[in-house]
Amino acid sequence: MLLHACVVTKHTLNLSVKILQEHLTPLKEVNYDIAKNHQVRKKYTIQLGENELVLKELDLLQEDANVYKLIGPVLVKQDLAEANANVRKRIEYISAELKRLDSSLQDMEEKQNSKKDAVLKLQQKIQSLQAGKGKA
């Protein structure tokens, strides 16, 4: 009977380890997606700061000031009102993207937490099986 219990415990332990590994893969994927989200968010945050700075500079200019936009290797003259409008649109777009990224990040963190909980429970089960196996 003791031999049968050891075989069942070993089989259960191996099965639990396999299930744990299957749960770790999606957790790693979510962690990767979160890191990617942080990188993109950082890029947009920098762009937002740059565009806000440009907007402040444009606000300091007089109506008759010359404004140039760099397009490729060429500086092209641009109307001050048009430049102002373009920068404001970019700021709106970047702000909307940051909100979208925040929402996405929140969803991913919830997934991450549930996957972490599942992995933790499996680890605890494996530890209890190992502890039981050690006693037998």
From TrEMBL:
GO terms classed as biological process: chaperone-mediated protein complex assembly; protein folding; response to cold
Keyword set, alphabetical order: Chaperone, Coiled coil
Superkingdom: Eukaryota
Record has Transmembrane helix as a keyword: no
GO annotation, cellular component aspect: cytoplasm; prefoldin complex
SUPFAM superfamilies assigned to the protein according to its UniProt record, in alphabetical order: Prefoldin (SSF46579)
Record-linked InterPro entries: PFD_beta-like (IPR002777), Prefoldin (IPR009053)
GO molecular function, one term: unfolded protein binding
Entry coiled-coil feature ranges: 91-125
CDD domains in UniProt: Prefoldin_6 (cd23161)
Pfam families found in the cross-reference section: Prefoldin_2
Family according to the record: Belongs to the prefoldin subunit beta family.
Name of the protein described by the UniProt record: Prefoldin subunit 6
Taxon lineage: Eukaryota, Viridiplantae, Streptophyta, Embryophyta, Tracheophyta
